[in-house]
């Protein structure tokens, strides 16, 4: 009996899973159990490593409700923890990228907050006399006997939980790319400003809408947007709530590129609405950008993201320099670095690696080819005879004691002095 119930439950969950549309790329391993998003790794990419998240509430313009607030950060954690993930692409189904927070969800949240802040007797009375909270139930004020301070404490806790869902984007090791089409409003702007890169289709629009709703944006836009577009422009967008088109978004730096619409592209029509041609184009461009990033050494890409975010949050130059020194001292020595230095050495002098890989390289200074070493030999300053005709000793390695020794180039920690 228990097994049968479990099977029924699994089948029901499968039936409720979000459905891809014509513009959704083929996924190798769509994550199970998600009803409001489509997530997995993109198939058909040469180097792999591109994770994909698609908001799948096109009938509500991908606005965030109870399930989506839970599923979005969970999917991010699941994908980022996967060893194959190098980049995460985020987009939305239908005509819009994201219309922010679902109004019905806000109404239910306010009603629940009032109930949670009310004393037990008042809550019991309200539960017995008031209809259950639905999408049509709007808050009408505090319940009798409710403590205003308790209400505010519950509201603060709720706001911070929603903030955390978008902050998960910054906690991900992998860089996140927002591929925006159609409208991006309110909470949608909160989402994309937490991403590391943003691109959009040419018909995309953006609006920091909260001031028109009598609130201050509280899920990250006011904190992150000034670092992206500058303080003055962020103030303009937040106070006027005006709509910004793709061209202006690119001009002010909100997006790094605008993708032209591809004529004759699929519209990804679904039973609940259809997307614009721009969605197909911007997804393709985002996957191309993701592939370029995924081809880079993984630890270097992850470290670059982390150091840039740290420097933004702790903007003193001295602190940023100290942080990157600490980061590289822990992460720089890797197989990727050894391969990169080997490739540069084989390419010859001035091929991209100069006098070493920086102070974080553990004291190893690598000079490609005969760039510096040969000049020392010509001046007779090396104090050592020329290398043998075998060519093995043409590269010079600085052991950290100021003496250049001939030998093969190796990316390693300093050798012990004998």
TrEMBL record:
Biased composition (Basic and acidic residues): 372-382
Pfam families (alphabetical): ECH_1
Region (Disordered): 366-418
Protein's pathway: Lipid metabolism; fatty acid beta-oxidation
Domain of life from the UniProt record: Eukaryota
Record's keyword terms, sorted: Fatty acid metabolism, Isomerase, Lipid metabolism
Family listed: Belongs to the enoyl-CoA hydratase/isomerase family.
Protein's name according to its UniProt entry: Uncharacterized protein
Phylogenetic placement of the source organism: Eukaryota, Viridiplantae, Chlorophyta, core chlorophytes, Chlorophyceae
């Amino acid at each position: 009996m228990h097994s049968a119930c479990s099977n029924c439950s699994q089948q029901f969950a499968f039936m409720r899973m979000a459905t891809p549309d014509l513009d959704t790329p083929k996924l190798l391993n769509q994550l199970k159990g998600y009803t409001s998003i489509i997530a997995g790794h993109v198939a058909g990419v040469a180097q792999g490593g591109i994770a994909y998240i698609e908001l799948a509430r096109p009938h509500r313009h991908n606005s965030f409700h109870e399930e989506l607030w839970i599923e979005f950060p969970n999917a991010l954690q699941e994908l980022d923890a996967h060893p194959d993930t190098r980049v995460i692409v985020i987009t939305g189904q239908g005509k819009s990228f994201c219309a922010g927070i679902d109004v019905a969800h806000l109404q239910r949240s306010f009603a629940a907050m009032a109930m949670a802040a009310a004393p037990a007797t008042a809550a019991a009375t309200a539960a017995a006399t008031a209809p259950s909270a639905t999408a049509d139930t709007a808050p009408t004020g505090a319940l009798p006997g409710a403590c205003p301070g308790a209400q505010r404490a519950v509201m603060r806790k709720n706001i911070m939980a929603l903030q955390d869902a978008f902050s998960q984007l910054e906690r991900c090791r992998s860089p996140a790319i927002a591929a925006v089409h159609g409208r991006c409003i309110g909470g949608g702007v909160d989402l994309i400003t937490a991403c590391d890169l943003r691109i959009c289709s040419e018909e995309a629009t953006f609006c920091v809408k909260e001031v028109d709703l009598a609130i201050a944006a509280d899920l990250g836009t006011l904190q992150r947007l000034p670092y992206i577009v500058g303080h003055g422009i962020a103030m303009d967008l937040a106070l006027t709530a005006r709509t910004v088109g793709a061209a202006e978004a690119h001009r002010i730096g909100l997006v790094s590129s605008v993708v032209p619409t591809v004529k004759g592209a699929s519209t990804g029509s679904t039973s609940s609405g259809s997307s614009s041609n721009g969605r197909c184009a911007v997804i393709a461009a985002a996957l191309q950008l993701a592939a370029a990033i995924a081809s880079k050494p993984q630890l270097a890409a992850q470290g670059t993201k982390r150091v840039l975010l740290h420097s933004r949050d702790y903007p003193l130059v001295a602190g940023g320099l100290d942080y990157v020194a600490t980061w590289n001292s822990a992460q720089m020595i890797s197989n990727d670095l050894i391969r990169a230095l080997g490739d540069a050495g084989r390419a010859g002098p001035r091929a991209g690696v100069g006098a070493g890989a920086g102070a974080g390289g553990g004291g190893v200074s690598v000079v490609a080819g005969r760039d510096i070493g040969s000049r020392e030999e010509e001046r007779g300053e090396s104090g050592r005879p020329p290398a043998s005709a075998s060519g093995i000793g043409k590269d010079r390695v600085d052991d950290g004691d100021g003496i250049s020794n001939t030998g093969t180039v190796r990316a390693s920690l300093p050798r012990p002095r004998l």
